[in-house]
Amino acid sequence: MRDKVETALDKIRPALQADGGDVELVEVEEGVVKLKLKGACAGCPMSEITLKQGIERLLKEQIPEVKEVVAV
After folding, report:
1. Are 70 and 33 in contact (CB under 8 A)?
2. How much is the pTM?
3. Going by C-beta distance under 8 Å and a sequence separation of 6 or more, which residues neighbour residue 29?
4. CA-CA distance, 67 to 52, in Å (whole number)?
5. What is the mean predicted confidence (pLDDT) over 31-47?
6. Is it the case that residue 43 has pLDDT exceeding 90?
7. End-to-end Cα separation, the chain, in angstroms
8. Distance, CA of 36 to CA of 41 (rounded, Å)
9. Which residues, other chains included, contact 72 with Cβ-Cβ below 8 Å and sequence gap of 6+?
10. Whole-number Å distance between alpha carbons of 19 and 72
11. 18 lies in which domain range?
12. How would residue 66 be classed by pLDDT, with cut points 50, 70 and 90?
């Protein structure tokens, strides 16, 4: 499942990098994906929205086993 998540994140990265940010996959455990937001995303007040409405939504669409995405 980790490989599936990495592949999906590779599709999201260009949009994050265009705004000076990035995302790092920390761990996938029992359907919970743990990510670390980096660069501009780390301090952005909109990061929670990006995480939940952007990244989590996309991962759930592409990988049904994903239950939740959390920032660490």
Report:
1. yes
2. 0.90
3. none
4. 12
5. 92
6. no
7. 19
8. 9
9. 26, 27, 34, 35, 36
10. 20
11. 2-71
12. very high
Report how many domains make up the chain: 1
Q: How deeply is 37 buried, as exposed, middle or buried, from its count of CB atoms within 10 A (0-12, 13-18, 19+)?
A: buried
**What percentage of the chain has pLDDT greater than the value 90?**
86
CA distances from 33 to 19, 20, 42, 61 (A): 22, 22, 17, 14
3-state SS, the chain, equals CHHHHHHHHHHHHHHHHHCCEEEEEEEEECCEEEEEEEEHHHHCCCHHHHHHHHHHHHHHHHCCCCCEEEEC
Which domain CATH number covers 59? 3.30.300.130
Report CA Rg, the chain.
11
